[in-house]
């Protein structure tokens, strides 16, 4: 049943022929009677941004963080792929495990956030994902000081990418995907053992 047509309509010669579809709408429809026109119709359109962790991310290790902590000490590299056309990432959300262990999460040189209650929202991003390709994005993690007034030596810390907010360059629709991808866990110490 196409746009309300019944089998009887098709038998009687009433049918439509969609000649071009672009970005979820038909640009021209030719009807059986020979008349043509431009009509807007609803055509399903699906686009998703998929995230994965790159092997170029820092592996689990000890992170020396005495005397002021460790700025930009580790890197989580995420690959983003858009299905169904180009997209632009506008915000990322990270969850932090290990209370008070992370002082800042930075997306390249574009934006950063200080975690509040174990969550960091990095907004105002403009990360384009090309059509039929992917975007590889480095995310740097800074850690709290180990010792008096800081976290305990041996504290474990990790971040997880939990939300990716993006806009479709094809439809203009804003969406959020929820990948929940953890970077390798790090162990904070006063000095490297």
Protein model, in words:
- With 193 residues, the chain is mainly beta.
- It has one helix and 15 strands; from the N terminus they run αβββββββββββββββ.
- Strands 5, 7, 10, 12, 13, 14 and 15 form a seven-stranded mixed β-sheet that branches. The protein has a five-stranded antiparallel β-sheet with strand order 4-6-11-8-9, with no helix packed on it.
- Strand 12 and strand 13 form a beta hairpin.
- The protein starts with 6 loop residues before the first helix and ends with a strand.
- The N terminus is likely disordered.
Q: How many E-type strands? A: 15
Percent of sequence in beta strands: over 45%
Structural class: mainly beta
Percent helix among the residues?
under 10%
Count the helices. How many?
1
Mean pLDDT: 84
**Termini separation (Å)?**
70 Å
Which geometry do the CA atoms define? elongated
Low-pLDDT sequence parts: 1-35, 38-43
Major β-sheet, in short? 7 strands, mixed
Q: For the CA atoms, what is the radius of gyration?
A: 25 Å
Give the SSE map.
Layout: H1 7-11, E1 16-22, E2 25-31, E3 36-37, E4 48-53, E5 62-64, E6 70-83, E7 87-97, E8 102-107, E9 111-113, E10 119-129, E11 134-143, E12 155-168, E13 174-177, E14 181-182, E15 186-189
Parallel strand pairs: 5-15
Antiparallel strand pairs: 1-2, 2-3, 4-6, 6-11, 7-10, 7-12, 8-9, 8-11, 12-13, 12-14, 12-15
Outline of the structure:
It contains one helix and 15 strands; from the N terminus they run αβββββββββββββββ. It is an all-beta fold and 193 residues long. The strands form three sheets. Strands 5, 7, 10, 12, 13, 14 and 15 form a seven-stranded mixed sheet that branches. A five-stranded antiparallel sheet has the order 4-6-11-8-9, with no helix packed on it. Strands 1-2-3 form a three-stranded antiparallel sheet, with no helix packed on it.
